[in-house]
Amino acid sequence: MKKVLCILLSVFLTLSCIVPAFAAEEADSGEKFIEQVETDTPVIVVRGMNFTGGLQFDRGTENARPVNVQFDAGQLFKYLAKTFAAVITSFSIEAGISVVCEYVTELFSAYPCDENGNSLHENISAEYYPGSVAEFDGIKDKNSVDEISLVTSLCDRYGDDMVYYFVYDWRLDPCDNADKLNETVDIALADHGCDKVDIICCSMGGSITMAYMAEYGYSKLDTVISNTSVMFGSDVITDLFRGRIEFNADAVERYIGAMVPALSGIIKFANMTGGLDVLCKLLNDFAHKHERQIFDESLVPTFATLPGFWSMMAGDSFEEAIEFVFSGKEEQYAGLLSRLENFYNTVSSRRQEITDGAIANGVKLCIISNYNSPLVPAYEKAKYQGDGMIETAPMSGGAITSVVGSTLSEAELNIGDSKYVSADKCINASTCLYKDQTWFIKDGGHVIGKYASDCVYFLFELLESEEQPYINTWEKYPQFMLSSEEETLTALV
């Protein structure tokens, strides 16, 4: 059990960033059709993190291969045996933990950055599309389950030459990626002789877009849509990088039940009888007792070296997290820390100032937040509402959200104006930074955009609005909506 825990603590962040696999039930049969309209404003989709397929070794050569985690049964059993031997020969649990951490760092050895925040492997890169979709074959796919389906819908609406797909190395400094985004913006403007572009930022793309606005301002932007993005940070990074590990029995039941339905009955029984609560307490006690070793030997050499992950840190928790992760290692990681502090000073500590500035300069800002999907149940705030990947509260710019499976308390419901409370009493949007520009979709997946779906038409409306859209602009798109698996939208009542 202790061996399993060490692995769980080291890889749960990865699991929270991998898009859950699900089948695309609709074939490209031609039944759905998007009417094309003319637009003078190019659209740039800033995609989110693509952990399982976005990076390649030796891209563009005959040796090109994806950067993926390769789970090898033989390697796993070798390390399990090594762990057992280490514990037996040294009579030390800590020795066994070290072996497990060694396995984890080897498993994710392709991903880390060095002590200056640069990729450890110079031959790893992400795909990059400097021109419009019209200039690149093979991007579009109606049946895709990620941002590609959104890109395809936009192309069919506005034309391939009006849509740009911004992909980047999600591990690296968001400020450097913002420089590349600026290049894409300038290419789009030059291609069409126009003054402004629209941006739809998805997931981690919110950090890149925020860094872009901090560096390059707002003069080239017309509409910015946060499509379930981390514009305002993420609790998973904020909790993890402060050591806030917590396994909650109810959250574990919901997550396993959603991810592995075949086990839902067993896990529910274990929770009802108190067995799951006992197990979670053991896991929490073990994690707290050995957290320093686990973090130092597995997290710090791997995911804590990625500036991209740090860009999702809540600004008010940055200094605490730096102290927790890098205490005693400041000199060793001086170059990386300089990058992280620059992002904190220029972006994450100024998020509201940046978005306020955008609105004041005429940018139409729209925020889409989804909820009612369980999060990876290994950190403090994982029990609250989320979209299966990130949390609804930061995603929405500060909504009050309930624990998944329950409702807000009477005190929480009475904060602000009741018109901003969802019908299911799970969300109070009164505390959002931009409560009249923030929409919530119950049961919406992480990053909306299935081809020709209601969600896509909602995005079309946001993009095509001549004025700033608000939650009462369209009767068919109220602040709180319910989504089917096919992204059919109805008002939440």
Structural class: alpha/beta
Q: Averaging pLDDT over every residue, what do you get? A: 91
Total DSSP E strands: 13
Stretches where pLDDT falls below 50 for ≥5 residues?
Answer: 1-29
- Determine the N-to-C terminus distance: 44 Å
Quaternary state of this entry equals: single chain
Question: What shape does the CA trace take?
Answer: globular
Strand fraction: 5-15%
Biggest β-sheet strands, sense, barrel: 8 strands, mixed
What is the percent of helical residues? 40-55%
Summed up, the domain count is 2
> Strand sequence of the main sheet, in spatial order?
5-1-6-7-8-11-12-13
Order of H and E elements: HEEEHHEHEHEHEHHHHHHHHEHEHEEHEE
> How many helices in DSSP terms?
17
Radius of gyration, in Å, reads 23 Å
Task: Give the tags.
2 domains, 13 strands, three-stranded antiparallel sheet, eight-stranded mixed sheet, disordered N terminus, 493 residues
Protein model, in words:
The chain is of the alpha/beta class. It has 2 domains: 1-67 and 116-493, no CATH class; 70-107. It is 40% helix and 11% strand. The chain contains 17 helices and 13 strands. It has helices at 2-17, 73-90, 93-107, 147-158, 174-192, 205-216, 235-240, 249-259, 264-272, 275-299, 307-310, 318-326, 334-346, 351-360, 392-395, 410-413, 454-464, and strands at 43-46, 55-57, 65-66, 124-126, 163-166, 197-202, 221-227, 364-371, 400-401, 427-428, 438-442, 480-483, 489-491. The strands form 3 sheets. It has an 8-stranded mixed β-sheet with strand order 5-1-6-7-8-11-12-13, sandwiched between helices. A hairpin with a 5-residue loop joins β12 (480-483) and β13 (489-491). α5 (174-192) crosses α6. The longest helix has 25 residues, at 275-299. It is globular and about 70 Å long.
